[in-house]
Every structure is written in structure tokens, then in C-alpha cells.
Specification:
Blueprint (H helix, E strand, L loop, with lengths): L2 E6 L7 H14 L4 E6 L1 H4 L6 H18 L6 E5 L5 H10 L4 H5 L2 H8 L6 H15 L5 E3 L5 H18 L8 E3 L29 H8 L21 H9 L2 H12 L5 H15 L1 H11 L2 H30 L13
Parallel strand pairs: 1-2, 2-3, 4-5
Bound molecules: adenosine-5'-tetraphosphate.
The site of adenosine-5'-tetraphosphate (AQP) has 22 residues, from strand 1 and helix 1.
């Protein structure tokens, strides 16, 4: 069975960009692939973060993923820092990754501009990502468009390591990008992103969804209610395409072009449709939040399964690299 790996940072809420671009597809892939889904906490520390909140956010992310349909019977769901081999393999990969390749990554360029002092972790982020995926010898990586460049780099890292140490040991993973590859944020410009605060959360209550949508950017030509607009350039119209029935999408387009609706009318319908779409997920999350121990157990079981594969891969890596075998394998149970 082909193997899928993907990750998500516990750097904030699960938002509709993550959901449409990645999580929804992870749920669908569970029946065809052996899936490893990882909450990548060691990635989240590469930007400024609230230490007192990381544990809660990690648990909340697991809760949201389970509520969104990740099934721990079919998917190995775990936390990155619970499987030590991720950072070990990342170190190994730094020895075959040219710095120039890391410096040309678009995400590094974007995020480093927002930092006063650029941290080495932000630069080497894609190396850890390569380790995340290749530790499980995954061949398929379902991601949004923003991550495609990183998957290309991990293919190169796999090629370089294989060429030096063991031909064919690591597969060259392929990015799997779906239709919702770049959901734009409520500012109508940038990618919907936790760190930009332009998101709608998956677990937001209907009233919060409305409060977030109300000021969202629309077609700038619609200055007054009577000005006609162009739906194709409006992010609210694009969101309707993901959350509203076909008939409503057609009505939205028509009423935008003819100024039959104002932008607020259009947003009101969208807010209701988003709130309805996620109602079952909100309810499941509310149930799971009453049982945090159960979520922790799921993560512990996931880490144990992941560790088995990861340790096997690392044995092969160390052997091919000529490292002296330790007398006893370290047994780490977290
Ligand atoms: N706006 C988006 N449209 C489509 N896909 C998206 N993804 C994220 N934003 C969008 C996909 O979601 C998965 C998990 O993302 P992540 O949290 O690990 O990292 P990210 O891409 O860095 O997400 P954010 O929200 O932009 O986080 P911050 O601001 O903390 O960096 C990935 O598959 C991603 O492609």
C-alpha cells in the first residue's frame, strides 16, 4: 500500500485554508493509503511563539484533526517531538543539503522578512520536513501549493543522500496538490495563514464566523451597494465555490454583476453556509474536548507505531553511513 505523510503546525487554530488545502484530502486518502499525519511542533518553534500555549495548541490541533475526520484506526496520528528520529535524520540531511537551496525557498524569504533576527531553524525548516517524510519512506505528500517547493527540495535531498550512501534507499516523494491549492485570506490578497491573522477557524462559532467575514475584502469596484462587481476577482465569491451549492454560487455571481445584492448580503449567505458545513466538526470537537486523556492516548499510540517505522529507517541510515552501531538501541518511551 502506498504511503502518505503530511504535517501541520500547532501554531494556532486549524483554519479553512488548512482544511480545504490539506486536511479534507487527508481524510479522503485514509481509505486508499497508509497515512501518517504529524503535528509538527518542532517546526512551530522556528518562529516566535507563546511557550505557555504550545502544549494546549498541540492538543487542540489533535482534537480538531480527529473532529475533522482523521480516524486513528486507519491513520497514524502523532506529535513530531515524540519520535526523536525526526531530528536525528534532519541532522543527517543537513550534511547533503546546500545552503543556497535553502536560501532560495520562497517561504524562507517571506518569513525571514518578518523577523528582526533570522533564526537558523527557519532556514533549515525544509531539511526537517524532508526528514519527516523520508523517515517513513512516504511516496505521496498531500499539501497546499505553498509547500510544493519544499517537496521538490526533499526529492533533491533524497537523491543526494541516495547517491552518496545507498541507491534507492529513500523514495522521491511526490506532492499531491488538490483543487483548493491556495485559499486566500480575508484580506483578499495573501494566502490564508495562521501567522497573518487573516483566517476563519474551523471551530469558530457561527457568530464569530460572521464577525470575521463582515470586514473581509471584496471587489474594490463595489464602493456603494449599487455598484456592480466582478465575482471572479472577489475572494468571497471563491469561498462560496467551496461552501455553497452550485445554484447559490450562480445566484451570487449574478447578483454581484447586477448589484442585486450588496457585499454584506453575499457575506451573510456565505457565513451561514460555512457555519453549517462545520457544525458536525464543531460538535465532535466539543465532545472530544471533554476527554483530553483520550486524545493523549491516541497520540501516544500513534507515536509508538510511528517509532517502529522510524527506528527501522534510522538503523538502515546509520548502517549505510558507516556509523559504529550502539551496543543497545536506546529505548525511548514518552
Ligand atoms: N491558505 C492555504 N491554502 C491551501 N492550503 C494551505 N495550507 C496552509 N494554508 C493554506 C496547507 O495546510 C497544511 C498545513 O499547513 P501548516 O500549518 O503546517 O503550515 P503553513 O502552510 O505554514 O500554514 P500557515 O497557516 O501558513 O501557518 P503559519 O502562518 O504558522 O506558517 C499544509 O499542507 C499547507 O500547504
Amino acid at each position: 500500500m502506498a504511503r502518505v505523510f503530511s504535517g501541520i503546525q500547532p501554531s494556532g487554530e486549524l483554519h479553512i485554508g488548512n482544511y480545504l488545502g490539506a486536511v479534507q484530502r487527508w481524510v479522503a486518502l485514509q481509505s486508499q493509503y497508509q497515512c501518517f499525519i504529524c503535528i509538527v511542533d518542532y517546526h512551530a518553534i522556528t518562529q516566535d511563539y507563546d511557550v505557555s500555549m504550545l502544549e494546549t495548541r498541540t492538543l487542540d490541533m489533535a482534537t480538531s484533526l480527529l473532529a475533522a475526520g482523521i480516524d486513528p484506526e486507519r491513520t497514524v496520528l502523532f506529535v513530531q517531538s515524540h519520535v526523536l528520529e525526526h531530528t536525528e535524520l534532519a541532522w543527517v540531511f543537513t550534511s547533503v543539503t546546500p545552503i543556497g537551496e535553502l536560501e532560495r525557498m520562497t517561504q524562507f524569504k517571506d518569513k525571514s522578512q518578518r523577523q528582526e533576527s533570522v533564526l537558523a531553524g527557519l532556514l533549515s525548516y525544509p531539511v526537517l520536513q524532508a526528514a519527516d517524510v523520508l523517515l517513513y519512506k512516504a511516496d505521496t505528500v498531500p499539501v497546499g501549493e505553498d509547500q510544493v517547493q519544499h517537496v521538490e527540495l526533499m526529492r533533491e535531498i533524497a537523491r543526494k543522500w541516495n547517491a552518496r550512501y545507498g541507491d534507492g534507499f529513500f523514495p522521491e516523494p511526490q506532492a499531491l496538490v488538490g483543487e483548493a491549492k491556495r485559499i486566500v485570506g480575508l484580506d483578499g490578497q495573501a494566502k490564508m495563514s495562521k501567522s497573518l491573522g487573516n483566517t476563519i477557524g474551523l471551530l469558530d462559532q457561527p457568530e464569530v464566523i460572521w464577525q470575521r467575514l463582515r470586514p473581509a475584502m471584496t471587489d474594490p469596484a463595489r464602493v456603494t451597494r449599487n455598484d456592480p462587481g466582478t465575482p471572479e476577482i472577489c475572494n468571497i465569491y471563491h469561498l462560496h465555490q467551496h461552501f455553497s451549492p452550485k445554484k447559490t454560487v450562480e445566484e451570487v455571481a449574478h447578483k454581484c454583476r447586477t448589484a442585486g445584492w450588496g457585499c454584506l448580503d453575499c457575506k451573510r449567505v456565505l457565513a451561514d453556509n460555512i457555519a453549517n458545513a462545520f457544525k458536525p466538526i464543531r460538535q465532535r470537537a466539543a465532545e472530544l474536548k471533554k476527554r483530553p486523556e483520550q486524545v493523549r492516548e491516541i497520540l501516544a499510540a500513534g507515536a509508538a507505531k510511528a517509532r517502529e517505522v522510524a527506528q527501522e529507517t534510522m538503523r538502515g541510515v546509520r548502517e549505510r553511513m558507516g556509523l559504529l552501531p550502539a551496543r543497545t538501541e536506546a529505548v525511548v518511551d514518552r
